Write a sequence for this structure.
């Protein structure tokens, strides 16, 4: 496995690197820092003098961030790379170029005591990435994750989310939730919800794990965010894509990424078998 971690010198990104090293001990980890002044190193030669000085400072800062990350890798081999361009594009593009299997990144910050305000870069990377994106948050994000919550709705994408959860984590720690919606696209009664859960779990190789199932009533986004309060990590599928190579987050996935109090992984349509 190859894990890509974008860094910017701030605490949330440092927590993401710590998480990646702890959660994926056998993975190859690459830390990148983005210089947004130009789209490539070669383009720096065309910059006017004042912009060239800005570029040189940005490169020096990026290299310092990566050197610090390498020093904190605690003996793990860490590949580092300065990349160029708008971060929201450069990070997903680099992930595709190096065939990364996952992006792990920090959230932007918090607004108020409990409402998470996701930074625009993180949000756009979640939208645009060709691989699952894990947005790390929580005071003990690098600790052992005891409970993995997966939201499912019967779609192939939610099955892919469950497959991601049982592959990346201990299946016995996985809890699967679906929501009864009287006027939505999900199951409209508890019996239908139980059948949906059974079918979804049956479609995934869970190695005979004892996976807990939960049925809630109401709005799917609210139910997942509420249930996340007793979980350590939430895994959801993105809504889908618009255009050829850019996805638009569905309302449920976006609400969970923005508001869940724990680490969230978003699985894209590209991960559907």
């Amino acid at each position: 496995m190859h894990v890509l971690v974008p860094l910017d010198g701030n605490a949330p990104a440092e927590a993401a690197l710590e998480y990646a090293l702890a959660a994926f001990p056998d993975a190859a980890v690459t830390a990148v820092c983005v210089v947004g002044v130009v789209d490539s190193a070669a383009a720096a030669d065309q910059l006017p003098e004042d912009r060239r000085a800005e570029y040189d400072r940005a490169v020096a800062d990026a290299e310092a961030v990566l050197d610090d990350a390498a020093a904190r890798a605690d003996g793990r081999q860490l590949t580092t790379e300065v990349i160029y361009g708008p971060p929201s594009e450069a990070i997903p593009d680099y992930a595709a170029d190096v065939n990364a299997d996952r992006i792990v990144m920090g959230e932007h910050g918090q607004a108020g005591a409990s409402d998470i305000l996701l930074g625009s870069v993180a949000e756009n990377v979640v939208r645009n990435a060709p691989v699952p994106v894990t947005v790390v948050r929580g005071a003990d994000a690098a600790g052992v994750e005891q409970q993995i919550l997966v939201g499912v709705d019967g779609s192939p994408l939610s099955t892919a989310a469950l497959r991601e959860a049982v592959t990346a984590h201990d299946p016995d720690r996985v809890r699967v939730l679906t929501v009864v919606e009287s006027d939505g696209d999900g199951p409209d009664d508890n019996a239908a919800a139980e059948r949906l859960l059974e079918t979804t779990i049956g479609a995934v190789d869970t190695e005979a794990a004892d996976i807990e199932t939960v049925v809630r009533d109401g709005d799917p986004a609210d139910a997942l965010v509420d249930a996340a309060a007793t979980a350590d990590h939430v895994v959801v599928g993105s809504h889908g894509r618009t255009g050829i190579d850019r996805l638009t987050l569905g309302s449920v996935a976006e609400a969970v990424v923005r508001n869940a109090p724990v680490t969230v992984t978003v699985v894209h349509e590209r991960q559907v078998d």
Notes: Residues 2-136 form a domain with the Rossmann fold fold (CATH 3.40.50.620). The chain has two domains: 2-136, 148-271. Confidence is low (pLDDT under 50) at residues 109-118, 240-248. Residues 183 and 199 are 22 Å apart (CA to CA).
